[in-house]
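Supplementary Note 3. Input sequence used for the single-chain structure prediction.
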Amino acid sequence: MKPIRLSAHAVQYQTPRGFTAAEAEDAIRTMPWLPAERDRLEVRKDFPFAGDWNGRFFQTKQVRPIFVEEADEIVVITVYTYYF
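The predicted structure, written as discrete structure tokens, is reproduced below.
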């Protein structure tokens, strides 16, 4: 199993977008990989949230990592987070 590393860009956006490294890794390890733009890959995974995000209540948080698989590791380029 290859290690998963967050790029500096992904780390920078953890707090503003509200995702954790563990959520991004869980999504990559458990969901089907799909092709994304620029020869990258992506996955989407819903997590129970039941909380406030930017002044609104949401039940679910969806984490969508965009990543590349390299020879020795998986590098997460960015992570998008959706609340609903």
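Residues 19 and 74 are 18 Å apart (CA to CA). The longest helix spans residues 21-30.
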